[in-house]
Amino acid sequence: MRLPISKQQVTIKILFFLSFAAFASWLSYFYVYLKEVPHLSSLEIGIIAGFQQFNNIFVVPAWGLMADKFGRKKMLLIAMGSSALLIPGFLLCHGFLSITLFMIALTLVYNPMISLLDTIALDYEEQSNGAATYGEMRLWASLGWGSSSLLTGLFINTSHLPYIFPIASTLFLLVWLLLFFAYKPLTTKTHLLSLKPTIIGDLLKSERKLLLFFLLVFAYSLFSAPIYLIINVYYHELGASNSIIGLAFAVQALSELPFFFYGKRLVTRFGAKKVFLFTMIATSVRMFLYGINHNPELAIGIGVMHGISIGLFFVSMIAFVHNIVPTNMRSTGQALIYSFYAGGVAFGNILTGVLDDFISIRITMLVFASAVFILAMFVLWIGPKIKLG
User: Which residues have C-beta within 8 Å of that of residue 38, sequence separation ≥ 6?
Assistant: First the structure.
């Protein structure tokens, strides 16, 4: 028997909360773990972080196509269950090569999860006649990330960093059980698409505005890469404890909430180009402040701007793309968002690792802040020609 819509909404919010709690429990401290346990260099960590994101370019679109054909729930169950089983495998990896190869294997099933979760929320928003917006559901992800990163930091600060992997695995198992038993798709979505190899290329060719927007996302993500997960290396460089890092991630996650709630209204009122431009300028200022700062406690305060860098950034991207992409290609369109975003972050992480070995991640923040600002000015100059919205 299908759950009522109100219960479905609650189920989706819990899925977001627990899934992002699982993501945060290990990702918030993974690069610190690589520094302190296998004692990898910044360049090696940057390469691993790059591969972690790079696989999104190829893996996530393939999963998006399969989700549009076989159903979101089925593919998410496979991805979630496989990730729960694999993540503890990091405990068996002790060197750069083995960790890199294992990361590549894990991302084949791990990386599609966020895209598929977002698609489930977008399906519900459409099929429930606006009973809850995507942003209102997605803000529960920020709550999950914030609470998990804080609690995990307090726990491992008095125990051991390797505990992050079994904690994450346990949380993913809970999500899998909830997804299997409680989530019922509002409509059955199967055989929506033929898995034609050219379908993604055809979409980008037919929608030039979409391709230009994705290229802009790639460039912005490349230069803003240090403010995402690898920022825990920045805090580590400043001498922050794991509990401070957990608090920093919690503050960042909570700062996203108002933008996930009101972000779509801002995009509707001002347009994707203006909102995205504002996001770039604010991120440039944020990175500049990180670059001139030496105090980890002050850095936590700077992290309040994360809501603009991530919350408003993602809401504007998703609203723009899903106004263009056909409904029956929603998973594919969502996957493309993460492909271009992750591609930029991947190369940005590698570049950050290279620069960190020479000039420190703090000075790297200043360099990339300038690059993001120049990119924003470039968009402002060519904006009337691109017509992003």
Answer: 93, 94, 95, 96, 99
3-state secondary structure 264-299: HHHHHHHCHHHHHHHHHHHHHHHHHHHHHCCCHHHH
3-state secondary structure of 104: helix
| 201: its two tokens | 């290329």
Residues with Cβ < 8 Å from 206, sequence gap 6 or more? Answer: none
Which residue type does 52 have?
A: Q
Other CB atoms within a 10 A radius of the CB of residue 119 amount to: 26
End-to-end CA distance of the chain: 43
| Residue 3, number of CB atoms within 10 A of its CB | 14
What's the CA gap between 350 and 346, in Å, rounded? 7
Residue 149's closest CA among 240, 82, 211?
240
The CA distance from 72 to 65, in Å, is: 10
Cα 328 from chain centroid (whole Å): 23
Q: Take residue 50 and report the two structure tokens written for it.
A: 């790059």
Name, in order, each residue with C-beta under 8 angstroms of 55's C-beta and a sequence gap of 6 or more: 104, 107, 108, 111, 342
Cβ contact 221:335 at 8 Å = no
Max CA separation in the chain (angstroms) = 60
Q: How many CB atoms lie within 10 A of CB 204?
A: 13
What's CA 212's distance to the chain center, in Å?
Answer: 21
Q: What is the full per-residue pLDDT of the chain (389 aa) written as tens digits? A: 444 457 889 999 999 999 999 999 999 999 989 989 999 998 899 899 888 888 777 788 888 888 878 888 999 999 999 999 999 999 999 999 999 999 999 999 999 998 889 888 888 887 777 677 777 888 899 899 999 999 998 888 655 789 999 999 999 999 999 999 999 876 544 334 444 556 666 666 766 777 888 888 899 999 999 998 789 889 989 999 888 999 999 999 899 888 888 887 888 888 777 888 899 999 999 999 999 999 999 999 999 999 998 888 888 887 777 777 766 666 677 677 878 888 898 899 889 988 888 888 999 999 999 999 999 998 888 765 555 55
Total H helices, total E strands in the chain:
18, 0
The helix (run of H) or strand (run of E) holding residue 336 is helix 330-386
Strand, coil or helix: what is 197? coil
